């Protein structure tokens, strides 16, 4: 086991020394990586880059989205086929999900990879882990499931079916320790892809407001009309504002256009410059998800919104135990970003939240001050390299 560093008192952070971890292998190693949603696909892309640096001869297969495919992962299944969220939404797609699992089992049986890496998405990936274990293939769970939010009892499943559990959130170390389980905390991989000098030096546009409605169809249809009405309210008060929306791979431009129902114009911009665009914004309205951590690391004040189906929301109120829905607030332990759920996610509330940041107010200064503390809490970079070493170590085990 490598030496570790206890950064910020949150847990163990693995320290690496560069080397080719595949030296001496007689066969070309095959690594299967499974991403179940857009954010997992982006994390998978960074992990593949780090794995290739440490094991240049490795072959990559898996369930891949646009980012992993661009990185050279052979997509035996596509991430876009699974991108659903919420209790009722998953139930509606259950026949399709079961079909994907049958295909995946067949592919794993045929390809016999040296290791399977599953990224987040526990409802799907717990089943993948069980399949891999049955086939005798070691499993690394990268981006540990958020069992601290609900369903703590699933820790027992992880003990039985996962060879290594890799965390990117500092507070998870203590949670799993309470359940008698050690994990590998590597820091957050977004630090390396977001907080580069080129991105962080992008000039701010004091009149630019970003719109991030999520990548799933249901997120766009439920949130974008609300964001568009909030934009109209802001534009009435600040006529010089411009609104921009980065279009992620797989997002339907026609759907976006149809859901932007106000007459206030919005500019759609390809996502190749997503982080630069977000960094240039004065403030952002965003769907809850990985995007909120991205905006936090880019130090852009953000109003967070989400609307679930009524049944999903009702069940969530009964089962979910965390005080916040956005990762920046959970990591910082306070409501730095205002959050708006269900009926609270309305145009007037969102417009009021954003309006307090358009000028140089004390509220804006407080938000920026707290966001500046995030990088040190998240490992200060190098997470993907640490995770890659764990994957290769697991692959080398007898």
TrEMBL record:
One of its GO terms (molecular function) is phospholipid binding. Condensation of UDP-2,3-diacylglucosamine and 2,3-diacylglucosamine-1-phosphate to form lipid A disaccharide, a precursor of lipid A, a phosphorylated glycolipid that anchors the lipopolysaccharide to the outer membrane of the cell. Its EC number is 2.4.1.182. SUPFAM superfamilies: UDP-Glycosyltransferase/glycogen phosphorylase (SSF53756). HAMAP family: LpxB (MF_00392). It comes from the Bacteria. Belongs to the LpxB family. One of its GO terms (biological process) is lipid A biosynthetic process. It is an enzyme of class 2 (transferase). Coiled coil: none annotated. This is Lipid-A-disaccharide synthase. Keywords: Glycosyltransferase, Lipid A biosynthesis, Lipid biosynthesis, Lipid metabolism, Transferase. It catalyses: a lipid X + a UDP-2-N,3-O-bis[(3R)-3-hydroxyacyl]-alpha-D-glucosamine = a lipid A disaccharide + UDP + H(+). It holds the Pfam family LpxB. Pathway: Bacterial outer membrane biogenesis; LPS lipid A biosynthesis. The lineage of its organism: Bacteria, Pseudomonadati, Thermodesulfobacteriota, Desulfovibrionia, Desulfovibrionales. InterPro entries: Glyco_trans_19 (IPR003835). GO terms for cellular component: membrane.
């Amino acid at each position: 086991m490598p030496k570790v560093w206890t950064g910020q008192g949150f847990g163990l952070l693995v320290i690496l020394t560069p080397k080719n971890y595949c030296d001496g292998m007689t066969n070309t190693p095959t690594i299967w990586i499974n991403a179940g949603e857009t954010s997992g696909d982006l994390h998978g892309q960074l992990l593949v880059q780090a794995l290739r640096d440490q094991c240049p001869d490795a072959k990559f297969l898996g369930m891949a989205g646009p980012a992993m495919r661009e990185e050279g992962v052979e997509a035996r299944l596509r991430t876009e086929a699974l991108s659903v969220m919420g209790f009722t939404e998953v139930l509606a797609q259950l026949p399709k999900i079961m079909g994907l699992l049958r295909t995946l089992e067949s592919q794993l049986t045929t390809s016999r990879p040296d290791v399977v890496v599953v990224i987040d998405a526990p409802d799907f990936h717990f089943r993948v882990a069980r399949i891999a274990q049955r086939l005798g293939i070691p499993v690394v769970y990268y981006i540990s499931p958020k069992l601290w939010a609900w369903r703590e009892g699933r820790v027992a499943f992880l003990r039985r079916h996962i060879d290594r559990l890799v965390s990117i959130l500092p507070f998870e170390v203590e949670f799993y320790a309470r359940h008698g389980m050690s994990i590998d905390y590597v820091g957050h991989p977004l630090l390396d892809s977001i907080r580069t000098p080129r991105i962080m030096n992008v000039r701010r546009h004091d009149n630019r407001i970003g719109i991030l409605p999520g990548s799933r169809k249901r997120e766009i249809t439920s949130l974008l009309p609300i964001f568009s009405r909030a934009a109209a309210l802001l534009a009435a008060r600040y006529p010089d504002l411009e609104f921009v929306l980065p279009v992620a791979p797989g997002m339907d431009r026609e759907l976006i256009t149809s859901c932007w129902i106000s007459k206030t114009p919005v500019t759609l911009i390809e996502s190749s410059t997503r982080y630069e665009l977000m960094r240039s914004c004065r403030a952002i309205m965003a769907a809850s998800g990985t995007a909120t951590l991205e905006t936090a690391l880019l130090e852009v004040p953000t109003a967070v919104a989400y609307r679930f189906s009524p049944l999903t929301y009702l069940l969530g109120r009964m089962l979910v135990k965390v005080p916040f829905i956005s990762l920046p607030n959970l990591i910082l332990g306070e409501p730095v970003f205002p959050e708006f759920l269900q009926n609270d996610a309305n145009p007037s509330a969102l417009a009021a939240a954003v309006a307090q940041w358009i000028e140089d107010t004390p509220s804006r200064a407080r938000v920026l001050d707290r966001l500046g503390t995030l990088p040190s809490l998240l490992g200060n970079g190098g997470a993907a390299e640490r995770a890659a070493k764990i994957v290769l170590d697991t692959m080398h085990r007898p």
